[in-house]
């Protein structure tokens, strides 16, 4: 009668319920608590992205002050004249009214492209949060520029202005956006398009997977399906076999 190979109090090394070698218990490598570090890192990344998006939104909105000032300065004026009883266009065939909208749209496109380029320059990693920040900032900046331009432009009370200048005197009409729905979205659309284009062309690329050799493959190693240690091709049978 022989003694047992494995004492009763020691588990066999070949047992199906053996603890894996990398098991470190709760919180250790391979344990159930190891996913907490990954989740914590992901939460920190999301918070960082939200903070960056908020900063971008605020800065782009403040840039709307510059757009409003340039619009007041560059937009063509619509000349009006009064005969004492009514107010008329001094030049009925002029295109100044359309020019005000066109000036705002072109300036908004330029501001959107500039903001997108600056954001990409400082944050090349990109991300959806930055794009949303650019879009919101462009919308808020356009609203700020529009209201600032109207406020700094000619008097909004046309009747009072006509009475102040007198009969037969040409004066400027209030600065207005006639196509507000489209003009106020140009900045956001332009910024998103330029940022996405820059990210696609010059943004960081995901690393390609490395296809390493399987252990035992290659020179002197066995190949799956092969026999022997020298390769995957079986030796030729002897002559006459």
Show the helix and strand layout.
Layout: H1 35-74, E1 79-82, E2 87-89, H2 96-122, H3 128-152, H4 158-165, E3 171-172, H5 180-202
Antiparallel strand pairs: 1-2, 1-3
Helix pairs in contact: 1-2, 1-3, 2-3, 2-5, 3-5
Any idea what the shape is? elongated
What is the first-to-last residue Cα distance?
49 Å
The number of helical elements comes to 5
| Protein structure class | mainly alpha
Poorly predicted runs of 5 or more residues: 227-232
Strand neighbour order, sheet with most strands: 2-1-3
Largest sheet: 3 strands, antiparallel
Mean pLDDT: 77
The helix content, as a percent range, equals 40-55%
| Strand fraction | under 5%
The total count of strands amounts to 3
Query: How much is the radius of gyration in Å?
Result: 36 Å
Order of helices and strands: HEEHHHEH
What does this structure look like?
With 241 residues, the protein is mainly alpha-helical. It has a domain of 133 residues. Helices cover 51% and strands 4% of the residues. It contains 5 helices and 3 strands. The chain has a 3-stranded antiparallel sheet with strand order 2-1-3, with helices on one face. Helix 1 runs antiparallel to helix 2, helix 2 runs antiparallel to helix 3 and helix 2 runs parallel beside helix 5. The radius of gyration is 36 Å and the shape is elongated. About 2% of the residues have low confidence.
């Amino acid at each position: 009668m022989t003694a047992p190979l494995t004492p009763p109090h020691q588990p066999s090394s070949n047992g199906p319920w053996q603890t894996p070698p990398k098991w470190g218990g709760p919180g250790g490598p391979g344990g159930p608590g190891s996913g907490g570090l990954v989740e914590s890192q992901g939460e920190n990344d999301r918070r960082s992205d939200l903070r960056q998006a908020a900063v971008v939104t605020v800065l782009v909105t403040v840039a709307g002050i510059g757009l409003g000032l340039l619009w007041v300065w560059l937009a063509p004026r619509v000349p009006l004249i009064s005969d004492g009883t009514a107010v008329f266009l001094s030049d009925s065939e002029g295109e100044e009214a359309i020019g005000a909208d066109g000036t705002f749209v072109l300036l908004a496109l330029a501001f959107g492209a500039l903001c997108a380029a600056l954001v990409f320059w400082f944050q090349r990693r990109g991300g959806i949060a930055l794009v949303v920040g650019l879009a919101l900032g462009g919308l808020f900046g356009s609203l700020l520029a529009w209201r600032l331009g109207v406020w700094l432009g000619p008097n909004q009370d046309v009747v009072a202005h006509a009475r102040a200048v007198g009969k037969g005197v040409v004066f400027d009409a209030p600065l207005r956006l006639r196509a507000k729905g489209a003009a106020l979205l140009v900045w956001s659309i332009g910024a998103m398009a330029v940022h996405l284009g820059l990210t696609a062309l010059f943004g960081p690329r995901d690393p390609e997977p490395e296809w390493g050799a399987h252990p035992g493959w290659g020179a002197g190693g066995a190949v799956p399906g092969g026999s022997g240690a020298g390769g995957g091709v079986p030796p030729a049978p002897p002559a006459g076999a």
